[in-house]
Write a structure and sequence with these properties.
Blueprint (H helix, E strand, L loop, with lengths): L14 H20 L1 H8 L6 H6 L8 H24 L8 H28 L3 H30 L6 H25 L1 H6 L1 H25 L1
Helix pairs in contact: 1-2, 1-4, 4-5, 4-6, 6-7
């Protein structure tokens, strides 16, 4: 009779992730309830520019609508980065300490990038372009963050998908960012052409280089 071999069963603690996802969905519900008309226009952003045209002039980075959805975006992208790192064997997707590190790093990264952009825009006298571009950028990236919430939720609580699906999601995010810059060129072409040199400098220094260093940090650390 063969001996019975007992293996330790390791259970991942996902309670913290459930709480964070619940908080994320709660913020979405609060935002929709408090700003129903604006939220409805925002959800059509992928198919219509009406939201940008309506709220282009009367928006603020510190507005409650923007702030609530920014928190959702931050939570969503942090979870997706954590999932990617676990998928490629760099950590565990249930590692809440790593998640705190990621969301803290992203918070400082975004804040530092925003302040540095403010300094550069003031130095080169392109504040108008920066404010308009920030409105467009924040809107579309927040929209991508909302789309990532259900995607990350499904990925997190299910078996690992094929590598093709993961690369497909990453490709969609990269392609969306390219479309964002093309759309900004179309909308603000008069303003951009008038200060083309500064726009190229802004694009290379503040939009390409920081994400390259972020990618380097994730893959090396």
């Amino acid at each position: 009779m063969e001996g019975i071999v007992l293996h330790e069963r390791i259970l991942e603690n996902k309670d913290w992730a459930t709480l964070v996802f619940t908080l994320c969905l709660t913020l979405i519900v609060i935002t929709k309830t408090a700003f129903e008309n604006r939220f409805n226009e925002f959800t059509r952003l992928l198919f219509s520019d009406k939201y940008i045209k309506i709220y282009r002039e009367n928006t603020s980075v510190l507005a409650w609508f923007t702030l609530l959805l920014f928190i959702v975006q931050l939570v969503s992208f942090s979870f997706f980065i954590l999932y990617l790192m676990s998928y490629f064997g760099m950590t565990s997707k249930s590692d809440w300490v790593m998640y705190i590190r990621i969301i803290t790093f992203l918070s400082y990264f975004i804040l530092a990038k925003y302040l540095f952009e403010k300094i550069i825009a003031t130095s080169f006298n392109v504040e108008d372009f920066k404010e308009n571009f920030d409105m467009l950028k924040i809107s579309y990236r927040t929209y991508m963050g909302l789309l990532l919430v259900p995607v990350t939720l499904v990925l997190y609580y299910n078996n690992e998908p094929s590598l093709l699906i993961i690369y497909g999601i990453i490709g969609f995010l990269l392609f969306s960012n390219v479309l964002l810059y093309l759309k900004s060129l179309k909308i603000y072409q008069t303003l951009v052409l008038g200060k083309l040199f500064y726009f190229i400098l802004y694009l290379c220094t503040l939009e390409i280089a920081p994400y390259y260093f972020l990618y380097y940090w994730i893959t090396k650390k």
